[in-house]
Amino acid sequence: MHTPLCDTLGIEHPIVGFTPSEHVAAAISRAGGLGVLGCVRFNDAADLAKVLDWMDDNTDGKPYGVDIVMPAKVPTEGAAIDLDKLIPPGHKDFVERTLQRLGVPPLADEGRAGVLGWLHSVARSHVDVALEHPVKLIANALGSPPADVIARAHDHGVLVAALAGKAEHARSHVANGVDLVVAQGYEAGGHTGEIATMVLVPEIVDAVDVPVLAAGGIGSGRQVAAALALGADGVWMGSYWLTTEEYTQSLGESAMQEALLGASSSDTVRTRIYTGKPARLLKTKWTDAWASDDAPEPLPMPLQNLLVAEAHNRIHRANDPAVVSMPVGQIVGRMSAVRPVADVMATLLSETEETLGRLKNL
């Protein structure tokens, strides 16, 4: 399976995989796709640099990319303690009461790690580090990066991608200098819009003259073939890598994977409780609590993430599948086993080839 996107990115197969795990990202690249490492978990640019050094040594010389989070509008910038003052006490009380009710114990050694990665200034430091490595692509999860970031990337020969949930967003991205558009449908995990993938992809393909990646609800070769039939040049997959062996190896998310393996495609919810912007999460007791009558309205980005960051750390440590807080798409219903990335890729490719062959014979 080869499309013009493969030549653009220097990859064998038109499959781009987003993941917060460097082990998964490297494995995707080694398998012939493009692994894209999510950078939001890195507060310290030096830590990201070490991980990208590891990526350089473990991708067999094949290309990889990074994903940053640069919101167009933020309530303020500065130290986390200053932002903390903007959070209403009632919100903090609700979070603490909810954690106690769900039996989530406090942390003995950690605070609100993971918050700063959502700040615009920290995202810029991620760009600085990435451009010191041979990355092929910088993707922004929240639309077009600032003009100077796009210009710097192009000066380094690096392509820029942006996610879009509407055709008008895609046109704006291309006008801003973005090279690839990720058409992310309503089914997708994490930040996502309100238009389903089946409708969105052809709308964006018709709206722009750059390569388009289809995202949202893709976890089989039949869905890859469908994306190509809709006019996409390839696919962008995120959720499907969460139940790979390499994800466990790097992040040790046993309770999270247990929860995902037991979920159906109806066990997700689109909510602002994770970051302050609409994002699809696994439906658990934690998301149910935020839907209750006594729950406060989520705060804008990045304040909501600052509010719940410690809670997420506590939930992770509690290791309870019924409480986990995890972005995942509706494709979770197909995630029924923990497998190596290479096996997942091989299955995707064989199913896509089989599907295209069947359609050719109709």
TrEMBL record:
InterPro entries: Aldolase_TIM (IPR013785), NMO (IPR004136). GO terms for molecular function: monooxygenase activity. Coiled coil: none annotated. This is Nitronate monooxygenase family protein. Keywords: Flavoprotein, FMN, Monooxygenase, Oxidoreductase. It comes from Kibdelosporangium philippinense. It comes from the Bacteria. CDD domains: NPD_like. Gene3D superfamilies: Aldolase class I.
